[in-house]
């Protein structure tokens, strides 16, 4: 189970993760999603966090309003619950950036062109779990740590398959 420290930075990062993976319609919905992840907060704390994060409410195609946070990398466009879009983006980036995938035990090493590893690692993290605990990126190498002690080869195969699938 993931342990989340009781710090403002950890709470705010969790809020960003929740808002980019789920369509959150209200602060009470957000509080419930945070509680599911072991984080307790008050409405006023979450309200301040949303303000500090630059979160806004945006209208979805079906007319509902959901919270969204600005995208990463200086893109000010608010992004809300993009699960399928994040996976599609990951597939595109894996196809464009992954050079090799190698695995042993619970570790996977993905190689990229110089300067692209952090970009790919961020896409992997935002797409949600593919059986990994997390990523560490260097300049041209992404290290994925798998949840399953013997899950490395399966995760490496997943990325190899993802790179080979037609768009």
Automatic annotation (TrEMBL):
Tell me the GO BP annotations in alphabetical order.
Answer: L-arginine biosynthetic process; protein complex oligomerization; regulation of arginine biosynthetic process
- Pathway(s) the chain acts in: Amino-acid biosynthesis; L-arginine biosynthesis [regulation]
**Chief location of this protein within or outside the cell:** cytoplasm
Q: Name one Pfam family in it.
A: Arg_repressor_C
The Gene Ontology CC terms held by the record are: cytoplasm
What is the superkingdom listed in this entry's lineage? Bacteria
The subcellular localization recorded is: Cytoplasm
Please give the function described in this protein's UniProt entry: Regulates arginine biosynthesis genes.
The protein, known as: Arginine repressor
Source organism per UniProt: Aeromicrobium phragmitis
Q: What is the lineage of its organism?
A: Bacteria, Bacillati, Actinomycetota, Actinomycetes, Propionibacteriales
């Amino acid at each position: 189970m993931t342990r989340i420290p009781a710090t403002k930075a950890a709470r705010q990062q969790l809020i960003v993760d929740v808002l980019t993976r789920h369509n959150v319609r209200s602060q009470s919905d957000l509080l419930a999603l945070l509680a599911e992840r072991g984080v307790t907060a008050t409405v006023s704390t979450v309200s301040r966090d949303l303000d500090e994060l630059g979160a806004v409410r945006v209208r979805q195609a079906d007319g509902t309003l959901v919270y969204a946070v600005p995208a990463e990398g200086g893109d000010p466009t608010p992004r809300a619950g993009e699960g399928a879009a994040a996976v599609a983006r990951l597939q595109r980036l894996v196809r464009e950036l992954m050079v090799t995938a190698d695995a042993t035990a619970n570790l996977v090493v993905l190689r990229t062109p110089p300067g692209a590893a952090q970009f790919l690692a961020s896409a992997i993290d935002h797409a949600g779990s593919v059986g990994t605990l997390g990523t560490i990126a260097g300049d041209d190498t992404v290290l994925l740590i798998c949840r399953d002690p013997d899950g490395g080869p399966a995760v490496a195969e997943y990325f190899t398959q993802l790179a080979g699938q037609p768009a």
